[in-house]
Design brief:
β1 and β2 form a beta hairpin. This protein starts with a strand and ends with a strand. It has a 5-stranded mixed sheet. The chain has about 110 residues and is an alpha+beta fold.
C-alpha cells in the first residue's frame, strides 16, 4: 500500500497509507486532514487543492482541461503554485509510493 507524506496547513506532518486505486482526495478527507472534497470528486470546487512536491510532478498523470481551469479559477482567491493539483484528480498507484505534498489553504 503506497504511503503518502502530507504536510498540513498548520505545518504538521503525517503519513497516510492509501490503497491503490483510491482517489487522493478521499484518502486526505478520510485521513484527518483539512481537505473537505466538497464536490465529491467532480473537479468543481477546489476544496482538495494541494501543492505536490516538485520531484513528484512528472510522475503524475497530466492535469486535464477541467482541472487546469478550476485551479486557474481558485487562483483568484488563494495562492496557486507550479505544483498545484486537485487531489480528486489523482488516483493512487504503486508508482506514487512516497508522494509528498502540502495541503493548500482553504478556499
Amino acid at each position: 500500500m503506497p504511503q503518502i507524506f502530507v504536510t498540513q496547513q498548520d505545518g504538521q506532518d503525517m503519513t497516510l497509507d492509501v490503497p491503490v486505486g483510491r482517489r487522493l482526495m478521499e484518502a486526505l478527507r478520510d485521513g484527518g486532514t483539512t481537505v473537505e472534497g466538497t464536490c465529491g470528486g467532480a473537479c468543481s470546487c477546489g476544496s482538495c487543492h494541494v501543492y505536490v512536491d516538485e520531484a513528484w510532478l512528472g510522475k503524475l498523470d497530466a492535469a486535464q482541461d477541467d482541472e487546469r481551469e478550476m485551479i486557474e479559477a481558485i487562483g483568484d482567491v488563494i495562492e496557486v503554485r507550479p505544483g498545484s493539483r486537485l487531489a480528486c484528480q489523482i488516483q493512487i498507484t504503486d508508482a506514487l509510493d512516497g508522494l509528498t505534498l502540502t495541503i493548500a489553504e482553504a478556499i
